[in-house]
Amino acid sequence: MLTGSPRISVIIPTYNRGELLIRTVNHFLELLSGDDELVIIDQSDTPSPILLEMQITNRQLTYLHIKEKGLPNARNVGVQHASGKIILFCDDDTIPQPGLINAHVRAYDDPTIGAVAGRVILHGTQPCSDSAFGTIRQADFRIIGHFSSMERKRVDHFQGCNFSVSRQVFHQGVLSDKRFGGTAHLEESDLALQITEKGFRILFEPEAALVHLIQAGGGCRMPDMGRWLYWYGHNYMLLQLKHGRRVFLPFFVLVRLTKLFLTAVTAKNPGLLVKGVQGLIDGGISYFGQRETVSQVNEP
Length: 300
Known about the structure:
Elements: E1 8-14, H1 18-31, E2 37-42, H2 49-57, E3 61-65, H3 71-81, E4 86-90, E5 94-96, H4 100-107, E6 113-121, E7 135-137, E8 142-144, E9 153-155, E10 162-166, H5 167-170, H6 187-197, E11 201-212, H7 225-243, H8 249-267, H9 270-288
Parallel strand pairs: 1-2, 1-4, 2-3, 6-11
Antiparallel strand pairs: 4-10, 5-11, 6-10, 7-8, 9-11
Helix pairs in contact: 6-7, 7-8, 7-9, 8-9
């Protein structure tokens, strides 16, 4: 088992979540033991005076308010300021179950494990029974989540609201890619693929569970469908070009175009197809480095 202290750092990126964030912080502080730590990376419009005061009296809490927006950047800043040998990422609208942290830590008894995907409980749903959960299909990058299963197994990726990574993985140059803009859709899939390409395994551990509230406001929510489809196209293309085989690229593009077309037809809005196609194009431009990080410049 990993030894030394702190054994784990919990990182929670947040954006404009107010009182919900305070409740989440208190839930996690109750689970920490010894020299474990909780690191809050706040990208909100204004700092939280409550958390600024709390960190003065609680040595396990680190609160950082940063100006640059974006989930991948917040993750990277959190890793820079964390001290744990295990880094646990959770969302700001979650309720950790009692065994969450210990289950994440125990999984690293196996030195081949580079990351752990935790179980995500949604209110009103039953545990997933799909044996294909947690997989990524290389041909078209179809990603199957459903991390509510009770089956412990090796997986290809993890859900962004509940996963941990061994510190040694970050020592090998793995980082969250800031080019995954918008809602940062697929940035955690990219991170998972970076980890497995370094030769590490990802384990799904059902005992490492939390409840995901999926709060409507704040966070990474994007109600504008046109903007969402732009980043859908952009981030999917970036993911394929980073990790996919070129022989599958035509099939991948066909699948994505079909999905964009059907979405536009269902919404009776041809402009949505245009937005998504522009995103695909810009995702390729972003990958080949012919312009600045797309998440920091104008979008259609």
